[in-house]
Each structure stands twice: as structure tokens, then as C-alpha cells.
Amino acid sequence: MNRDDPSYKGQRGYNRFLLAIYDPWVLGFMARAVWKSPIPPVVERYRRLMGRRHLDVGPGTGYFLERSAPSEETEITLLDPNPNVLRKASRRLAARKPITVEADVMKPLPVEGPFDSAALSYVLHCLRGPQPNKSVAIRHIADVLTADGVLFGGTVLGLEERHTPQARAVLKAFNRAGDFDNLGDTAEGLRRILEESFEKVEVDVVGSTANFTATRPRSTYPDPSG
Ligand SMILES: C[S@@+](CC[C@H](N)C(=O)[O-])C[C@H]1O[C@@H](n2cnc3c(N)ncnc32)[C@H](O)[C@@H]1O
Q1: Fewer CB within 10 Å: C terminus or N terminus of the chain?
Q2: What is the pLDDT of residues 105-116, one digit of tens each?
Q3: Among 123, 171, 175, which residue has the most ligand 1 atoms within 8 Å of its CB, making it the best to mutate?
Q4: Does the CB atom of residue 81 touch ligand 1 within 6 A?
Q5: Residue 146: how many CA atoms within 13 Å on its side-chain side?
Q6: Model pLDDT for residues 162-198, shown as the tens digit of each residue
């Protein structure tokens, strides 16, 4: 990805070193000790919501896809602008023969839809704010889902929400470094951007994070019957 691209900073940190320590450090330690948001319910959500054709946007190491052990028939597409991520996740899931797409969720998605499900797990806090800008990513995913498709995921919230002092300090540091851009992100704002593109939205705050499920994507085109 070009360094001038607004999405560059949110994905540049995922080099081989970070990806090697990601599972124990980010999922094992940070999620539990800093964000106070346990990982097992996320695996459970993947298990429950993944459809036959699944799109994983920003898959990281592919941890959730592997742990949720989708059925043999599940066809997995991994989309990420960072080639290190695609390499790591596709190797881990090699037995599932995933399709990889090097792309930015902030631009129309160059994928062969429609998908029955999509995950956007801990990606929104990496996208460039303010939060209403991030609705573009949600729209792009809604556009490639089936009429009864589901989008699910989670994100770290900004400073207006409740956090431990440690979480606040980490949030500020990650925003200063540019890895996160979420200081103004709220659970209510998340609901609003999801509702722009989906008819049914559920948002649940857990510790410093919000988990979400969105179904019934709205059509991009106005209903001709008025
Ligand atoms: C915090 S990791 C989350 C990884 C994984 N989904 C998880 O829940 O553990 C963020 C992921 O989002 C990806 N990402 C960042 N900016 C992106 C963008 N503009 N479009 C798509 N993916 C992006 C990163 O490369 C990385 O794979």
C-alpha cells in the first residue's frame, strides 16, 4: 500500500514480528488484561455466525477462523491490504484453501460476492477517523453480502466510553503512534454507522470494546416504488 494512502498507518504495523507474537500478546494478554474483553465469546460468535461463503476482512493471524473450526463446506476469503497478514493467515488455514485478496476495505471490494457472512474483527479502531468516515467500510461489506447475510465483529472504543486507567493510557499511546485512530469512537456512533447499511443491528459493550452483529443489508439503490 502506498504510504500516502490514508489507510496506510492502520495496517503498516503488521510485520512478521508482530504477527509472530500477536496471538499470545494481543489476544492472550491485551484483550483480557487491558481491554477486559474475553476472547472465547468471539470464537463462539464466529462458530455461530459464519456462513457457507465467508469474507474475513483484516484477518490478522487467522486465529478466530482456525479456532472456530468451520465446516468443510465453508469457503473462506481473506481480505487485507497487508501481504504479511495474507501470507500468515493463509498458511495457517492452508487446509481450507482460502482465497486471498490484497485490498483496503475503505475502497470498493474487488471480490466475487455475494457472501453469506463477513467478519470485521478488531479492524474499525485501525481505520482513519472520525468515526462517520468508517461507515464507508461498512457500506463496502454490505454491498457484497447476500440479502440475509450477516456482518459481525468487535472494535475498541474511544475515550468517551468507560475504560480502566491502563486502557486509557494504551489507547492514547496507540493513537499517538497512528496504529489506532479511534479516540472519538463511541458505541452509539458504531450503531449509527452500522444502521446506515443494515436494517437490524446489535451492539454490546464489553470492557473497552463493542461487539456487533448486523443483518439485512440495505440496498445501495433507492427503492423505485418509492
Ligand atoms: C487488530 S488486527 C485484527 C486481526 C483479527 N481480525 C483479529 O480479530 O485478531 C487488524 C487487522 O486489520 C487489518 N487492516 C488494517 N487496516 C485495514 C484496511 N484499511 N482494510 C482492511 N484491513 C485492514 C490489519 O492488516 C490487520 O490484519
Answers
A1: C
A2: 999 999 988 999
A3: 123
A4: yes
A5: 10
A6: 999 999 999 999 999 999 999 999 999 999 999 999 9
